[in-house]
Amino acid sequence: MSDLFSSPVLRIDQPRRVPSAKSQYKVFDAGGVLVARAEEREVSLRRQAWRAVMLDGGGQRTVQVEDARGTPVLAIERPKNARSTWVSTPDGVLHGSIRQDRYQWLYQLLNAAEQPVGRLEGNRLARKFKVLDTAGTHVAQVDKKWKGAATELLTTADRYAVTFFHSPPDPLRILVIAAPIALDLILYEGKSVPDVFA
Q1: Alpha-carbon distance 61 to 169, whole Å?
Q2: Which of 2, 80, 150, 152 could make an SS bond with 60 (beta carbons 3.0 to 4.6 A apart)?
Q3: Contact 12, 30 (CB under 8 A)
Q4: Which H or E run contains 24?
């Protein structure tokens, strides 16, 4: 049985919802089995309405990731208007961070001591990202998938895929697992309108 931390392929799907209101994701293995759910907790209806009406996606967001049994396993936090995220255990122990490096298609993967453990190198559309370890080995791939013109143009629902070519050690593996949600929080949850060319 595969799970969030052992599956070589993950599919991350963000359901359609009111733009900016509340971050939610479902994570599946290659066979389509649900291995995790992720969503913001304790976001009041009033706050969701404010975000939706004002198209305010740039505020602080903390997404809690739970396995298929509902057990919390990760927390992914993006500070207000930041181009970085922090990845922690549910009780707040830091695994590391994912930080934009100059351009929206380049990111550093850092451990809790802020030492590099890898990097994301994306194409200029920020849709396809190679995951490289510190030796430059292509250990995984993170891609934003096309969901169709209507979905891309009219909603902020997104779909991602993660494929591991090697089994990198932690915290790199954990940061790669968190990368699609982190990228979505940095690049797409903060956008004011859906952008098919983002």
Answers
A1: 27
A2: 80
A3: no
A4: strand 24-29
In this structure, what token pair is assigned to residue 67? 């396995």
Counting every residue written for the chain, the total comes to 198
Cβ partners under 8 Å of residue 34, min gap 6: 26, 27, 28, 68
Cα distance between residue 45 and residue 27, in whole Å: 25
Q: In Å, what is the CA distance from 162 to each residue of 8, 10, 46, 54, 82?
A: 8, 5, 34, 32, 23
165: its two tokens? 């070519």
pLDDT in tens, the chain (198 residues): 468 999 999 999 988 655 555 788 999 999 999 999 999 876 545 554 444 444 455 578 899 999 999 999 999 999 887 889 999 999 999 999 999 998 888 999 999 999 999 999 999 888 999 999 999 999 999 999 865 544 444 445 679 999 999 999 999 999 999 999 999 888 877 554 343 333
Q: Which amino acid is at 90?
A: P
Q: Give one DSSP letter per residue of 64-104, joined into a string.
A: EEEETTS-EEEEEEE-TT-SEEEEE-TTS-EEEEEEEESEE
pTM confidence score: 0.84
